[in-house]
Amino acid sequence: MTLKLLALSLAAFIAMSTPAAAQERPPERANPVIQQVPPAGADDAIARRITNIFGELDALAGVEATVSNGVVELSGAAPNDAAARRALDIASRIEGVVTVEDNLERTLTVSENVTPLIDSLLAALSAVGRAWPLYLIALSAFLLIFLAAHFIASFKPLWRMLAPNDFIARFLGQIVRAAGFIAGLLVALSVLDAMALFGAVAGAAGVIGLGLGFAIRDTIENYISSIMLSLRQPFRADDHVVINDLEGVVVRLTSRATILMTLDGNHLRIPNSQVFKGVVLNYTRNPERRFSFELGVDANDDPIEACNAGLEALNPLGFILDEPAASAVIREVGDSNIVIQYFAWIDQRETDFQKARSAAISAAKNVLEERGFTLPEPIYRVRLDDASAKTPGEAAHASAPAPTPSKPAPASAETIDVSPDNELRRQVAEDRAAGGETDLLNEERPIE
User: Where are the domains positioned within the chain?
Assistant: First the structure.
């Protein structure tokens, strides 16, 4: 009983709190209600209203409307489908119309379809003729702004003062020229009160630019890499570098590629995008360079004495630097030999790397042999046939020891020419002097 009273009280409270208008308002319906009995003369009024409206429109002058119980039937001729849809839309919006039946004939005649186009074109030309002073002002404003920007962009002394190289100067000039074009266009459209057109064009250009960006992504990446390399230069011209396992001497840095001359004298073009993202090893930046080589001694020899003997041969060489000092380590111990690795430093400005390494190997080998160390030799297995099958003369000849060839005296490492080989650098200098593409490398820019 208590629960029943509580429910009744809650229902009464909700009823009292609900506005009276909300309680009496009938539910809304999605479609208008069709009257059971239309007012007298309603069909004639609807027909007259539609006919009068169509009479004001040239394209719908041939359309007739008949109305019965709120149902409109359109007949007659319409010049095209667009005009027919327009007639149906107008008729359906008249008050009291239940539905519209389409019995129109699309004539598609040339005169009825081309004449409105010609009329609109003539009207547009007439409007342009009336507004030609305004168009002249807009064109003058555009040309004035664009030409001013073009003059500033073409003033090379200004950009050479602001930019580190000609490539960046041209890039900044192009940005100023493009900004002037856009600014002039905005001012011209503002004068013509056609900024909505600019918004539509800008939206379309954005979509097209996005598609082109994906299509020429590699070209854009290479262009940006060229800018970054010209600002943050990892090498100079005539530097000996290795870029992504590609070795050579730098000839020039262009707006598209880095030109190397390989050690064989061939030109090598590397796209700047690969150079910017790649690993660059520069041999020229530090004049001191270390070389190494390995020599093996017999397993029964003392490896420490072999290390010391090799160092005694390297240290007196004039092209070996005293600081950092040469060194030697035991690389590995094999089944029949011990491998020793020697290290030494040279000054590349005065000594050729490959020549110095070759001379050092020769000097260390000769000293080890003079000290009695046995350098490992290839081991061959020899099979001896039955000597009884040979004649006595052949057996005697076979048993005679072979004469030992006399060894020439080893050449002294001091007599070997280890001066730098400048032939490749001479070719690079001639290539740079011949000109060609603009070099973005600038001696005034720091190397990073």
Answer: 42-109, 131-215, 230-285+422-448, 288-381+410-415
Residue from 108, 104, 109, 107 nearest 76 by CA: 104
Alpha helices, DSSP H, located in 235-287: 272-277
Q: Please, which residues have CB within 8 angstroms of residue 287's CB and are 6 or more apart in sequence? A: 347, 348, 349
Helical spans, DSSP H, in 37-78: 42-55
pTM for the predicted model, two decimal places = 0.55
Q: How far apart are CA 357 and CA 370, in angstroms?
A: 20
Identify the pLDDT of residue 37. 64
Q: Which pLDDT does position 112 carry in this prediction? A: 59
Fold of 230-285+422-448: SH3 type barrels. (2.30.30)
What is the third-level CATH fold of 42-109? Histidine-containing Protein; Chain: A; (3.30.1340)
Torsion of CA 39, 43, 48, 54, to 10 degrees: 130
Report, as ranges of residue numbers, the positions in the chain whose pLDDT lies below 50. Answer: 1-8, 10-30, 393, 395-400, 402-409
User: What is the model's pLDDT at position 34?
Assistant: 67
DSSP H or E segment with residue 280: strand 280-282
Instruction: Give the separation between CA 107 and CA 441, rounded to whole angstroms.
Output: 73
> CA–CA distance from 361 to each of 74, 296, 344 (Å)?
108, 12, 11
